[in-house]
């Protein structure tokens, strides 16, 4: 997994120049945020499937391979996160599954809802992860603060420009923040 030097791989699933010219700034930023956080997992994005601002809906090339990769692919996790073991927390219940990146900062979240076609997946980037290191559980204060921070921002992924800013603070390349600044958003 290397740093992307160009965004040509966005065109394969349908995010080409024509799409970017016709999309709203929020949708463009949604795609850029998800593309950055997905890293090598982007290879599983087959095509666009009715995305909304903050939520990338796509058809997956191979769902089982994606779920297997979630247990081994670091997406954009830091090296210390890789030492913690599996980079994503996976859960499944009643035909629904989701995977959350184990990180403190902006966190990739993948979901499949019951009733959806098997190959449809949603990706979004939460501004704060809910991961708490095991060594901090004994204090109770740090885990509660971390979980509260995530809980207070459950819909924070909808503010794609804030997420892009947080990704930039976390070391994302400049193209992630290619949309308008937070101060220029409409009320």
Description:
By secondary structure, the chain is an alpha+beta fold. Helices cover 29% and strands 18% of the residues. A six-stranded antiparallel sheet has the order 1-2-6-5-4-3. Helix 2 runs parallel beside helix 6 (160-169).
- State the major sheet: 6 strands, antiparallel
Report low-confidence residues grouped into runs of 5 or more: 1-5, 77-83, 179-187
Gross morphology is globular
Rg (CA only):
16 Å
Question: Fraction of residues in helices?
Answer: 25-40%
Instruction: Order the strands across the largest sheet as they lie in space.
Output: 1-2-6-5-4-3
Number of separate domains: 1
State the total count of DSSP E strands: 6
Average pLDDT figure: 77
Q: SSE string, helix = H, strand = E?
A: HHEEHHEEEEHH
In terms of DSSP E residues, the strand content is: 15-25%
Annotation field: number of helices: 6
Helix/strand-derived category reads: alpha+beta
Distance N to C terminus:
38 Å
């Amino acid at each position: 997994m290397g740093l992307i030097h160009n965004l040509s791989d966005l065109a394969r699933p349908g995010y080409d120049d024509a799409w970017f010219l016709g999309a709203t700034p929020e949708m463009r930023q949604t795609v850029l945020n998800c593309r950055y956080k997905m890293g090598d997992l982007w290879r599983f994005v087959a095509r666009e499937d009715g995305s909304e601002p903050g939520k990338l809906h796509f058809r997956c090339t191979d769902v089982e391979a994606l779920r297997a990769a979630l247990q081994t692919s670091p997406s954009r996790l830091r090296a210390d996160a890789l030492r913690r073991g599996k980079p994503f927390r996976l859960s499944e219940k009643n035909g629904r599954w989701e995977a959350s990146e184990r990180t403190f900062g902006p966190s990739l979240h993948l979901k499949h809802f019951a009733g959806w076609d098997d190959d449809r997946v949603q990706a979004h980037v939460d501004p704060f992860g809910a991961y708490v290191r095991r060594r901090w559980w004994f204090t109770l204060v740090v885990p509660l603060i971390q979980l509260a921070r995530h809980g207070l921002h459950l819909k924070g992924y909808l503010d794609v420009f804030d997420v892009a800013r947080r990704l930039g603070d976390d070391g994302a390349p400049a193209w992630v923040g290619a949309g308008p600044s937070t101060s220029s958003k409409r009320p």
